[in-house]
């Protein structure tokens, strides 16, 4: 079964607690900052798969459906996203949000990191048939910084999935990258995913 189905299933079984983002005060006479559409990852920039190339859908406005595990509830309708998949049980997602100010982007990125830092507990509280564990893989020194997390979920019916997540920011733009496949932490391509995250945040210029 392709990860487009398996990871959708895993995403549907988990959600993060939503929280309000503080709104920065903007003078009524201030002109809105110019909008420069964010650039998304290309398939070849994702962690390499040993037996398949990557494929990508179009960049799409709005929230992805289904929402990604743990961070989905926090994503605004102003988000844009792109899905990726291989011919085997591996898939990925990038979601990007351009905020109205750097302060709002900083607060939004912090909110997403909080959701991911509490991801395993949230999943197990909401879905008792899922056991989840997680790891924090550290901060990446790219633009205003990026953070990488891993989450392993095991369902009572036997499904075992590993996901890697990252949150990064450049100015007023925040991006989330998700990679997932069947397996455990031993199957997580952490080094490759860290490189993918650096590329994703670099492309936010």
Any idea what the CATH architecture is?
3-Layer(aba) Sandwich
Number of helices: 4
Query: Main beta sheet, described?
Result: 8 strands, antiparallel
Shape verdict? globular
> How many domains?
1
Task: Walk me through this protein's architecture.
Mean pLDDT is 86; it is low at 1-32. The chain is globular. It has helices at residues 3-12, 102-117, 119-126, 190-202; strands spanning 55-56, 60-61, 80-85, 90-98, 130-140, 146-155, 160-170, 173-182. The relative contact order is 0.20. It has 205 residues and is α+β, with helices and mostly antiparallel strands. The chain starts with a helix and ends with a helix.
In short:
The protein is α+β, with helices and mostly antiparallel strands and 205 residues long. Helices cover 23% and strands 30% of the residues.
Describe the secondary-structure layout.
Layout: H1 3-12, E1 55-56, E2 60-61, E3 80-85, E4 90-98, H2 102-117, H3 119-126, E5 130-140, E6 146-155, E7 160-170, E8 173-182, H4 190-202
Antiparallel strand pairs: 1-3, 2-3, 3-4, 4-8, 5-6, 6-7, 7-8
Features:
8-stranded antiparallel sheet, 205 residues, single chain, alpha+beta, globular, 8 strands, Protein Transport Mog1p, Chain A, 30% strand
